[in-house]
Known about the structure:
By secondary structure, the chain is of the alpha+beta class. It has helices at 91-105, 121-127, and strands at 8-19, 23-33, 36-41, 51-60, 63-77, 80-85. It has a single domain, classed as predicted glycosyltransferase like domains (Thrombin, subunit H).
Amino acid sequence: xxxxxxxxxxxxxxxILSSAAFGPKWARIEDIGAGxxxxxxxxxxxxxNLHVEVIFIWNxxxxxxxxxxxxLIVWTSSNLxxxxxxxxxxxxxxxxxxxxxARDRVMDTDRPADIDGPGTETEQRSRS
Length: 128
């Protein structure tokens, strides 16, 4: 049973999970909170107890932002992984959550399609 001390926010955003053992993998955040996140990993099942770096990439006012947050995979199920950040409420995660909330309130049409990775809703909208 999972115990959370902080509420989670439902989001859909692409991130990169990077580990020494598996290299970088595209992932999609399902939900995020100050203490962790649930991500769907594309084309891979990563093991529990794996140390990863969550790499957030977004466009803010025309400037590409990249933030890295160390985390531990605490559970896995099929292509999902539960992440626990090593620091509760790190400023980077708070900034990322604020940026994601702001992004959700505006149109995505001016963002480069490749920020979210190949095959995402943003890329598909930009092609139509």
